[in-house]
Structures are given as structure tokens and as C-alpha cells.
């Protein structure tokens, strides 16, 4: 089955960002895709912490509702990263990854576990935890017509334990909606994504923010899909708004796992990895 990976440049203007996202959903559907994967923070990228908290909506707010309508209209699954407000903490939000079914229903919601708190030399200082509540659990893979989808977000890709557990839970696709900085993107984006695909023997789908969002914030782009052998099978390159398509071939995935049965070779007698 065909799926699309998208990139766009979100700004602080939520309604405009929704229009961009709906346009990409329609574009992917017109290409025969059963799913389209949108970036982290598709709803907005704010100028500061205060604006980020102010703009956040609940999952049943207008932004996700608009994408649910688009998913239903075009008969396509939609993966998207959004900021989720919570009445439990009005001064902070969740960085949430929402999977919407082709019927417009909420198929899964994952809240980002690993928060991006860094001070990059000759790059930006980003303290995600100042406005974001860390998630508290790994979400089991979501069954879809095109495979079992493991939900993660951006910085999570730097923690291979998470992807290994998602594979062990049954994932055939692991998806990382992202907003990578330019400096880290140039150095690590492709390398990390290909590693996660090779070691888990999963398709990895990484939608991406791209371009200049605000005066102080820009993203690397280069959204891509990597197959279970580590080959890049779709890539958006330098385009500011794009959707590229690749086939998810589960027979091919199973052949790779059968020929190189990495999971059965793990030394559980020597080391362990498990959910808490």
C-alpha cells in the first residue's frame, strides 16, 4: 500500500497551518495513498513559550477536528504532531502525536516522552520542558490496513531502546513527526533514521518541518521514508511544502526479518529491556 510523507513550514498562524495540512492530505489521497504523515507541531510553531501555551488546543479542538474531517472526506489515515492543552496544567502542554483513521476517528494518541532540552554551540537553545509536560507511557502499535504503526516524536529517535520496544510490541512501521534543527539535521537526521530502520527491521516514516518559522526558529526538512533494509524510498528534499510517496510492502518486511532474525538472537540471558 502507498503512504505519503509530508513536510511544511508551520508558523504561529494556526488557521493557515490547518489549510496547509489539509492541502497535503488531499494531495496524498490524490496519489493513491492510504495514509499521510505530517510533521511535529503542524498546528503551529510559536515565537515564545507564552504564545505556545496560549495557542494550544485540546485534542477535540478545531485543529485536530479539521484534520479528522479531511481524513474522512478523503478516506485516508493521518498522522500528525500537535500541541495539546490540558486543564491539569494551564501553564504547560503536551507534545502529542495523533493518528486519525480513514473514518475520521482517533486511532491513537501518544504524548512525547523525551523532551528536547539543549544548548547547541553555534545553534539554538531550546528548552522544551519549560512549556511541555513529558508523556508517561509508550503507546502500543496501532493496527491499520497498511501495518502496525508505532508512534514516537522527533527527539525520541535518539533513544533506540524506545524503537526496540516498539518493534517488540509488534510495530511494522515506526513514525517520527519532527521539527529538527538545521545543525543537528545536517549532522544526524538521515543517519539516525536509517539506523532505527535497520536495527528494528521496520519502515521508518519521518515527516518534517522545513524552513523559517519565526525570526528565531528554522527547521531542516528532508522528510523521508526508510525501508526495513535501511534504504531511503521517499524523500522531500529542499521543497518547503511537499508530499512524497512510497510503498509499504509487508511481505518484503517479513522476508528481511526471516532472512536476518535479529530479534531471536538477542541475549536475554545477559541483558534485558522491558516496559516499566
From TrEMBL:
Keyword Repeat in annotation: no
**UniProt keyword terms in alphabetical order:** Hydrolase
Record domain CN hydrolase: where: 1-250
Q: Does the keyword DNA-binding apply?
A: no
The terms under GO molecular function for this entry are:
beta-ureidopropionase activity
Which principal EC class is assigned to this enzyme?
hydrolase
Q: Which InterPro entries match?
A: C-N_Hydrolase (IPR003010), C-N_Hydrolase_sf (IPR036526), Nit1/2_C-N_Hydrolase (IPR045254), UPF0012_CS (IPR001110)
List its EC numbers. Answer: 3.5.1.6
Q: What is this protein called?
A: Carbon-nitrogen hydrolase
Task: Tell me the name of the encoding gene.
Answer: NIT2
